[in-house]
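hey all, quick one before standup. I had two proteins in the batch that finished overnight and I want to keep them in one place so we stop losing track of which output belongs to which input. First protein below, input sequence then structure tokens straight from the run.
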Amino acid sequence: MELKWLEDFLSLAETRSFSRSAEDRNVTQPAFSRRIRALEVWLGAVLIDRSSYPIVLTPEGRKFRERAEEIVGLMKLSRAEFREADRPSNLPIVAITALHTLCITFLPRWLTDLRVRIGPVATRVLPENFHLCVQALVESGYDFFLTFHHPEVPNPLDSERYPHRVVGRDSLAAVTSPAMAAEGADRLPLLQYSRGSFLGLLAAIAQAQEGAPPTYLAHTNESSMAEALKFMAIEGHGVAWLPRSLVAPEIAAGRLAVVAPELPMDIRLYRSAARTRPLLDRVWAAAGDEAHAGSA
């Protein structure tokens, strides 16, 4: 039995959809289904009633869900404790989970500014998709969560339990190769994020804006990685809606062209109000210097 089987099962109990959970867990649906079945075989019990949609847990599944939550929670707590004990320096440590793109474009500079303001600090960073970042903040003991935000995309975090500060700004830009931009076609091929991905939801809002180019679906990137879509756009495969911070060098160098009005986004830092210690309060106060606070 593997820990990831339990995490798969808990995701499925939450979403009640094999396809949605497979996407959240970054595996194909057949592979995800095999892992759920392997867990059932190992336990000797059927956990999922597959005859209905959305799926429901069997009585055994409901009972096992409580056990699985306890096991996964204890394992993650133990991992966090051992990592804390084994860190190579005596510096205080901050655990941050962040969207993949922000780990590349925003986080390094932000950490540099943070260390100027509060002094030396060690960091542990988990790059993930939006849903797993939320899970890491809520369930896995991470101190902060760094994400994009737009008011039309709902955030599942309760504002009282998980306050935020706005620490930066970005925008979603529709980019393609200069050659494709110059063609002037009636419709352009669209490079799309996987269904339900966070940047995919933002891209759908941006594509619906006035002035966005008419498109047709040409490619879906199943990993939901903006970096992969960037290189597809550079190679002339279509239009991709990407954070400007990720493609600014390519735009400046003429390797990508912007073909639509951009969608403004905030960059938000979330924390758990239940996790308090002096170091976290210092980080929170320093983060508030950059922009206005959200829920405080």
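OK second protein, same deal, sequence then tokens:
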Amino acid sequence: MSYKLDIFNTAGEKVKTIDLPENIFNDDNINEDLIHEFVVMQLANARHPIAHTKTRGEVAYSGRKLYRQKWTGNARVWDAGSPIRRKWGVAFWPRNDRNFFKDMPKKQRRKALFGTLTLKVKDNELIGLEDFKLEQPKTKKAVEILNNLNLYGKKVLLVLPEKDENIIKSFRNIEGLKYILVNYVNPYDLLTHKKVVFLESSLNKLSEIFS
């Protein structure tokens, strides 16, 4: 099934309708298991463990046996660094050297991204915006554009073809809005934002990247 997308200008008026590339926006690309695996991979690779405990080999206690093995009436015990004693060596607790890294084959990552984009189109959560320029950074103008598109106050992902300081500085202070370059589009950001706004040139560049 081929998909079409309406392109709006900054005044919120429909300018035209374009055909979306079939190799990206296609029902055959929808695989929820792959999308889930991609998101899990992203979250795992973003982890930076902080919690760190010492093992019995790292605590500064003597290795001397605390008391004799038999005839004390107590359970047998070894040195003071034993993990079963309070405030001493710890077993099976978090370490900051743990590796959470995950990976996926390139074809699977690509299909997961295409599937997520297709789901956004199917759910009418993908919006096309005509390319525009701002003379200077102005948040008021950015809010006006979002209001014209009925997006202000919603969680929005703005996809840019390349860095544009005036656009970035105008939109970055708006609560709930995140901007991203088209090269870094990923399932996690797409799924965690209610609406995704692609500039028309971003769509063209997306098609070029995956052609």
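Flagging for whoever picks this up: Residues 4-47+101-209 form a domain with the Ribosomal Protein L4; Chain: A; fold (CATH 3.40.1370.10). Residues 63 and 75 are 18 Å apart (CA to CA).
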